Amino acid sequence: MCLGVPGQVTKIWEHEQTGLLMGKVSFSGIGKDVCLSCVPDVEIGDYVVVHVGFAISKVDEDEAKQVFEYLEAMDELAELEIAQPESP
User: Fold this and answer.
1) Domain holding 73: CATH number?
2) Can you give the residue range of the structural domain that contains 48?
3) Among 24, 43, 47, 80, which is disulfide-ready with 64 (CB 3.0 to 4.6 Å)?
4) What is the pTM of this model?
5) Residue 61, phi then psi, degrees to nearest 5
6) Would the pLDDT of 88 be above 80?
7) CA distance linking residue 58 with residue 75, whole number of Å
């Protein structure tokens, strides 16, 4: 099943080759590089819902934490532990 997973934006930059808005998103301490172009008004500290590497919407902190707890309880977060190359 494909799910959108909430996480907190910890870093924002522009991709040097494509010009796309990118960011580092923390999922309970696991950081992943994510395309933020669909949520251009996002700021560091905001929570976003991420689906297949794209932030698709912003959510408030309480909703993000509640959804993350549900996904954790259902054991639906294994893909977050896949190693990623270092970001800029």
Assistant:
1) 2.30.30.140
2) 5-79
3) 47
4) 0.79
5) -60, -45
6) no
7) 23
